[in-house]
Amino acid sequence: MPSPHRLQPEECAVLVIDVQERLLPAVQHGQKLLESLELLIRSARQVGLPVLATEQYPKGLGLTQSSLLPHFSQPAEAKTRFSAATPAIIDFLHRDARRMVVLAGMETHICVLQTALDLLAEDFAVAVVEDATAAGRSADHAAGLARMYQAGVVPASVEMAVYEWLGGAEHPAFKELAGAVRARRNQVEQT
To answer: Is residue 6 part of a domain?
Structure first.
């Protein structure tokens, strides 16, 4: 099992859980969530990480937010279970030798939590990106994060993940991604 203390790009995959157009209005800070997710997954792809995604009952709840689609490694997988640790996702992670799964999406206390617990049970290391997850209520978001941390999930933020994946200023994507991080900081400070 990889060290749960570093997000090594060669060991990581990102899993975006159920960020669907009809569900977004139900979570707090939906627009900020989208902005965080866009930076996270764009950065992941630029450093060579696979980005996987799921959709909870898309027939009834709609499809993934369209702005995220270009960054996925493959089409989002439809599911009806709350956990996104589906057999297809697990198979992909094993085939690609990814032992650290970086989780983002919604809702923190339901689908993200259950995914984390299932991945841990499958002997994956798991990190959750706090500012790229959301729930309808702040208490549920906090409870979901607390439960994951108690189970051994590694806490992270978008910036932490981006800079760990880069590893240093010599990375070819450093200038562009560092600029995107600065722009996001400035935007957050203005709101």
So the answer is: no
